[in-house]
Specification:
The complex is a heterodimer of chains A (139) and B (910). Chain A has 139 residues and is of the alpha/beta class. Chain A has 5 helices and 5 strands, in the order βαβαβαβαβα. Chain A has a 5-stranded parallel sheet with strand order 2-1-3-4-5. The two termini of chain A are 18 Å apart. Chain B is an alpha+beta fold and 910 residues long. Chain B has 27 helices and 34 strands. The longest helix of chain B is centred in the C-terminal third of the chain and has 49 residues. The termini of chain B are far apart. At the A-B interface, helix 1 of A face helix 21 and helix 22 of B.
Chain lengths: 139, 910
């Protein structure tokens, strides 16, 4: 039963951004109660990564969606991705969405070229973006 | 005993004759029976004033005072025939003057009569000489008694006066062999320069006067003579050292006198009496003659041509080696031989006839003869002696004459077959020239027929270019006058074709016996050569300029001599000059930078080995004379021989590319800088756009949250609060941007002298830092560089950021910050060192100085400080370096270009 649980992991050093995104996602998933969903936010990417590692080891969640910011101190989104790539394959289904206030084409391309990145979203996250996430997670 | 030795006798006769005749005392012989004078010596004649003839008609009583005659007769009567000393007697001279004489006599047989030899000593004269003479004469009388026979011969001798003239130059000596005391008489003082008291001296005191080279020989000879009792006579030639060191050559002749008074007639020598004759002059004459002869011999022998001297009867007197060689005879075979009897080959027979003719006619005679295929000019010089013959080889001259003829033919052929021509001019005594000859090509130059010019003197220089005419005439006159060689350049204008030819004329003048001057010469067309040369010269000049303009050295290396001939701007490049502009390869190597030498030499060697590749280029560092280093670029072309196997020489140019290299290096650095700055700029704009967008994106995000009307009031409030925060952040970003952009603007700010300690003090007093400062020990040492001229706001900002970072990220235990300055001519160096929490340089090396890079989330910070520091340092043309370790500390090393008031060397960001 626990296996069916889903998690959205928000990692952004910007606390405002985290809270706004959390509200938007919560609202969408609340509207559809058939899809049970946990939401966790991290301002420090290293902590977020450590949390993820534990989740993957314990295989608590069936599906994990990571909303990952690019520009963060101590560990950028890219470095997070590099570390993630080193983790052994897990039964957990992980989707990663990169977000950034950057509108640089080089960032977009880099994100799209990374096999582990599902999508690149320029901030702010819109309701359409959240709807897409819902579709991925619950449909 | 006398008869035993005829030679001795002869000699002694002469000796006694000499002693008698040359004796400084008057001497005579009178007939005992008639008392007539039989013989008188010169001294007697001189003393008494009677001539010899008068003396011989007188009796001995005729020179006495009448009162003395009785005494005289008594003395003669009682005369015992032995040696007698009669003491002092008075005699009367022809002029009546009475003189006192010491008289000694001894009987002798003279011309078959019983006679008395009388020796007189004028005691009225110097008393000092008396004893000597008495002594000597005593011996003389003694000896004479046993030498009657010798006097006969003396009388007979035809040469009785021969030695008169030498009388004054003789020294008489008497050695007493028992006492070994020698007494000297005669002119010994004049001869040797010594004077002895009493004229007597032990023999061993004078022996050293004999020249050391002769002493041993002479002494041995004397000892031999004295030990041989058959010997009566000794003579020798030797040298005596004069007082003062001069050398006197002497001829010493002496008699050995045996003691006859004793019964044992076994020949014990008791006296040794001699006469020393000074023969220095003769000796010197002889030496001079010998020397002369030696010289003549040397001259004769040094003559490479045969030379010999024949006597009147054509006997060979003198002949040199060259003549012997020609005659193919040995010296012994020919010297002294009659030339007739010398075996001559047929072709030398004519010589004999010539010699006879020359001797007969007594005139100098030359003739050229061919002897054994060699041409010889024989010159005969007759003289009183005979004939000097000199044969000079003239093969060379003969060959030369043939050469001349051959060459003349050759020159004519050449001049007829080439574009030039030869000519002969003849100047008469008035200086009017006339053409004797010109080869046919002359017509091409003149456009006037050669015959015309030969026949008409006025046409001679007609074809010379009018502008050169005067010059040519003057040069010709000068040449005829001084007989100097002609070498001039001028132009001909062809009278028919009007073609102008540049020519060079070379001619040699010869004065003839009739006073005319002949001039043989050659004219060569140098029009083309001159044109070529001009072009070459122009090209050369151009190249010289070019090479100077391009800082190029032109060189040529000769493979054989290993010398490099330098040209172009080498003096500027080497910074020195070389004799003849030549440098050896070894010396050249010294100008190559040692680090590049091996590589360069290897390259040169390789290139000269590979024949396909003629051209090579290489660069190396060149050390000028003054030590400055240039970057040079060498371009060389290797020249091979016809077979392409051997390198003949290498030519090339060396270009100083230092300015180029410096410019290139500057360009490279500029490009690097630009790339770096571009990267920074990209990073900067990225971060700026990101940070601008971040709050905006937040606001946008919040608005979409707020769209939900059902939103919880609490959340609404939080969201509103978030909008405020985002707007505030946006504002902060704008302020940050202003700060960053102001760095670029401030470069125009005035530079002032900044006291570093004051900067630190100001910062420490600001509120924010002073709160925390107590916890960090800030140590400064600006003693090595207390101040810097720079932009104050930058320096302030750099210090502020680094100090506040050090305080903000301080360590736990005894935190400190050390700031130290130092400087050199160009830079100010600053070091900020702390023991704070540090930065992980392994991970973050490239991010440290980035805008909005943060490493410690626990502490407040925007990630702007180090970005600002780096930007400001770079805008002051400086560099910053960081060394850091987590939990150990951080060290910033800053290098700032010093600014002068005059130079604004600050580059702008844009």
């Amino acid at each position: 039963m626990t296996q069916l649980k889903k998690l959205v992991l928000l990692i952004d050093d910007d606390s405002i951004c985290n809270s706004v995104n959390q509200i938007l996602i919560k609202k969408k998933f609340k509207d559809d109660s058939s899809c049970e969903m946990d939401i966790v936010t991290f301002q420090k990417p290293l902590e977020g990564f450590a949390f993820l590692l534990k989740l993957l080891e314990s295989e608590v969640y069936k599906k994990i969606l990571i909303i990952l910011d690019i520009n963060m101190p101590l560990m950028t989104g890219w470095e997070f991705l590099d570390e993630y790539a080193r983790i052994p394959k897990s039964s957990t289904n992980v989707n990663i969405i990169m977000v950034s206030s950057s509108v640089y084409q080089s960032d977009i391309e880099r994100a799209n070229n990374n096999v582990n990145v599902e999508e690149f979203i320029s901030k702010p996250i819109t309701n359409e973006n959240v709807a897409n996430m819902y579709r991925k997670m619950c449909v | 005993m006398i008869k035993k030795n005829e030679r001795d006798l002869e000699q002694s006769a002469k000796y006694y004759k000499d002693l008698f005749e040359l004796n400084p005392c008057p001497m005579w012989i009178y007939d005992l029976s008639t008392l007539r004078f039989m013989e008188v010596n010169q001294m007697a004649i001189d003393t008494y004033g009677y001539s010899r003839k008068e003396f011989l008609q007188m009796k001995i009583k005729d020179i006495r005072l009448p009162e003395d005659v009785g005494k005289m007769r008594e003395a003669v009567r009682t005369h015992n025939g032995e040696y007698t000393e009669y003491g002092i007697w008075r005699h009367v001279k022809k002029n009546g003057e009475i003189i006192n004489l010491d008289v000694k006599t001894n009987d002798i047989d003279y011309l078959g009569k019983e006679c008395v030899l009388v020796l007189l000593n004028d005691v009225t004269d110097k008393l000092k000489r008396e004893e000597e003479i008495v002594q000597l004469n005593k011996q003389l009388v003694n000896r004479i008694s046993e030498r009657e026979k010798s006097f006969e011969e003396l009388e007979k001798s035809n040469q009785r006066y021969e030695y008169v003239s030498k009388a004054a130059n003789e020294t008489i000596w008497d050695l007493d062999l028992e006492t070994n005391v020698i007494s000297f008489g005669g002119s010994y003082k004049e001869m040797f320069g010594y004077a002895y008291y009493d004229d007597k001296i032990p023999i061993d005191k004078v022996q050293h006067l004999i020249h050391p080279h002769d002493a041993e020989r002479v002494q041995k000879a004397i000892a031999d003579a004295l030990s041989d009792n058959t010997r009566r006579y000794w003579e020798d030639h030797y040298r005596v050292i004069k007082k003062g060191g001069g050398i006197v050559y002497v001829h010493d002749r002496a008699y050995i006198i045996y003691n006859e008074g004793e019964k044992d007639f076994n020949g014990k020598p008791v006296r040794f009496v001699g006469v020393i004759q000074n023969i220095t002059q003769e000796k010197l004459n002889e030496e001079a003659m010998l020397e002369q002869l030696r010289k003549v011999n040397i001259i004769i022998e040094s003559m490479t041509d045969p030379f010999f001297v024949l006597g009147k009867n054509l006997e060979v007197l003198l002949i040199n080696k060259a003549a012997l060689k020609l005659a193919k005879l040995e010296y012994e075979e020919i010297i002294g031989k009659d030339f007739h009897n010398i075996n001559l080959s047929e072709d030398r027979k004519p010589m004999l006839d010539m010699f006879k003719k020359a001797v007969h006619r007594q005139e100098v005679y030359h003739e050229e003869l061919e002897i054994q295929g060699k041409w010889v000019e024989v010159s005969l010089y007759p003289s009183e002696i005979g004939l000097a013959v000199y044969a000079k080889s003239i093969s060379e001259r003969k060959n030369h004459e043939e050469d001349v003829i051959r060459n003349a033919k050759f020159i004519k052929e050449i001049s007829d077959s080439t574009s030039g021509f030869i000519f002969q001019l003849e100047y008469d005594t008035e200086g009017i020239p006339k053409l004797n000859y010109a080869s046919k090509k002359a017509f091409d130059y003149w456009g006037i027929s050669i015959e015309d010019v030969i026949n008409d003197k006025t046409k001679l220089l007609n074809a010379v270019h009018p502008e050169d005419s005067k010059y040519v005439k003057n040069k010709l006159i000068e040449m005829v006058g001084n007989l100097t060689e002609l070498n001039i350049r001028f132009r001909y204008v062809n009278k028919i074709t009007r073609e102008v030819k540049v020519v060079r004329a070379n001619a040699i003048p010869t004065r003839l016996n009739n006073g005319n001057t002949i001039m043989n010469g050659i004219i060569i067309d140098i029009t083309e050569i001159e044109n070529n040369y001009k072009q070459l010269e122009e090209a050369n000049t151009r190249y010289e300029y070019l090479s100077k303009a391009t800082c190029e050295t032109v060189w040529e290396k000769n493979i054989d001599t290993n010398e490099i001939i330098l040209g172009g701007g080498y003096k500027e490049m080497f910074g020195c000059e070389f004799p003849n502009d030549i440098i050896t390869f070894e010396d050249w190597k010294k100008f190559v930078h040692p680090d590049d030498l091996k590589r360069t030499l290897a390259y040169i060697e390789l290139r000269t080995l590979i024949t396909e590749k003629r051209y090579c280029e290489f660069a190396y560092r060149f050390i000028r004379k003054d030590g400055t280093i240039l970057d040079v670029f060498e371009r060389a072309y290797i020249v091979y021989d016809e077979k392409d196997t051997k390198v003949i020489n290498v030519v090339g140019t060396t270009q100083d590319i230092t300015p180029l290299r410096i410019a290139q290096a500057e360009k490279d650095k500029m490009i690097d800088d630009l790339l770096e700055r571009n990267k920074n700029l990209e990073q900067f704009t990225y971060m700026v756009s990101h940070n601008f967008r971040a709050p905006i994106a937040n606001i946008l995000g919040i608005t979409s949250v707020l769209e939900d009307k059902t939103l919880d009031e609490n959340i609404k409030e939080v969201m509103n609060e978030n909008i405020k925060k985002s707007v505030k952040r946006l504002n902060e970003v704008i302020i940050d941007m202003n700060a960053v952009l102001s760095i670029k603007k401030n470069t125009d700010e005035v530079k002032t002298e900044i006291i570093l300690q004051n900067v630190v003090n100001e910062i420490m007093e600001t509120e924010i830092i002073s709160e925390e400062r107590a916890k960090v020990d800030v140590i400064t040492d600006f003693s090595l560089a207390p101040s810097v001229i720079s932009i104050k706001s930058y320096i302030h900002s750099i210090f502020q950021n680094l100090i506040s970072n050090a305080i903000k990220y301080k360590g736990e235990i005894n935190p400190f910050l050390k700031i130290i300055s130092s400087e050199d001519a160009e830079y100010l160096y600053l070091m900020f060192e702390d023991n704070g929490i540090g930065i992980d340089m392994v991970k973050n090396a490239d991010k440290v100085f980035r805008l909005y890079s943060r490493f410690h989330l626990e502490k407040e910070g925007k990630g702007m400080g180090l970005f600002m520091v780096k930007s400001q340092v770079e805008n002051l043309n400086g560099e910053i370096e960081i060394q850091s370790k987590i939990n150990e500390g951080t060290r910033f090393l800053i290098k700032l270009k010093k600014l002068n008031d005059s130079a604004k060397e600050i580059s702008t960001f844009n």
